[in-house]
Specification:
5 helices, binds hydroxy diiron-OXO moiety, Ferritin, 75% helix, 0% strand
């Protein structure tokens, strides 16, 4: 079973993961509007990843006999001043998510909830990848500027596909 504190913290994080999904879908629309379908594809894959993160936590709460209570959230931002500003915004968002996951691990340890602490390790590792992925594109965008390199990067980002993590 889950303590009430853990249950609430997991429900809050499920909301954040779905909000992340919504934010990346908004970013996908933004890039599509700019005529950058590869960037839009990349964000669409991220949208799917975030839904996976949310659903994995949702299933865990239920498996532990807890209650899932879905929450609403505000509309995500829908416009940015440039592709670089958009990716920097997303990277900052991921830093906040990493902090939230770390706080969840701290809480699990405080509650002596070893199962949840182990479950959350997957998210700890996933956040390393999330920050690296966004950070990598931020760096590339800084290098290419606004010129033709943007279209080359668009072609690269078009190749990203969503692969559901196996036995996650
Ligand atoms: Fe779920 O990692 Fe991004 O937000």
């Amino acid at each position: 079973m889950l303590s009430k504190k853990m249950e609430k913290a997991f429900n809050d994080q499920i909301k954040w993961e779905y909000f992340s999904a919504y934010l990346y879908l908004s970013l996908s629309a933004y890039f599509q509007g700019l005529g950058l379908p590869g960037f839009a594809n990349w964000m669409d894959v991220q949208f799917q990843e975030e839904q996976f993160h949310a659903r994995k936590m949702f299933d865990y709460v239920l498996e532990k006999g807890g209650k899932v209570q879905l929450q609403g959230f505000d509309a995500p931002q829908h416009t940015w001043k440039s592709p670089l500003a958009a990716f920097e915004f997303a990277l900052k968002h991921e830093y906040v998510v990493t902090k939230r996951i770390n706080d969840l691990v701290d809480l699990a340890q405080k509650e002596k909830d070893h199962a949840s602490a182990i479950f959350l390790q997957w998210y700890v590792t996933e956040q390393v990848e999330e920050e690296a992925n966004f950070g990598d594109t931020v760096n590339k965008l800084k290098l290419v500027g606004d010129g033709g390199g943007l279209f080359m990067l668009d072609r690269e980002l078009a190749t990203r596909v969503f692969t559901p993590p196996a036995a996650a």
